[in-house]
């Protein structure tokens, strides 16, 4: 059985490879490393959660995001919309920590937001 760390490494390698081919150039992107934009981090979170929990979630979008330095890396807090296998969407509170430019990334929280 593969360890969770091995799965994370494979996922990160795929994300970094994809991010390298999707570099955006523009004034808003000049000081943000490739691969660390909120949609890319949100896709990472959905993918890792789905692989770890056996959920068949698909990334739909990110509606709110906040990033700040934390313990030598960056902490990303966001609201992510994902769809299940049946197409029903839900929003999730997501917390990801990582060091841009490395393979050191962790999904810290992925919690469904209950609407009243």
From TrEMBL:
<keyword id="KW-0732">Signal</keyword>
<dbReference type="InterPro" id="IPR027214">
    <property type="entry name" value="Cystatin"/>
</dbReference>
<feature type="signal peptide">
    <location>
        <begin position="1"/>
        <end position="21"/>
    </location>
</feature>
<protein>
    <recommendedName>
        <fullName>Cystatin domain-containing protein</fullName>
    </recommendedName>
</protein>
<dbReference type="InterPro" id="IPR046350">
    <property type="entry name" value="Cystatin_sf"/>
</dbReference>
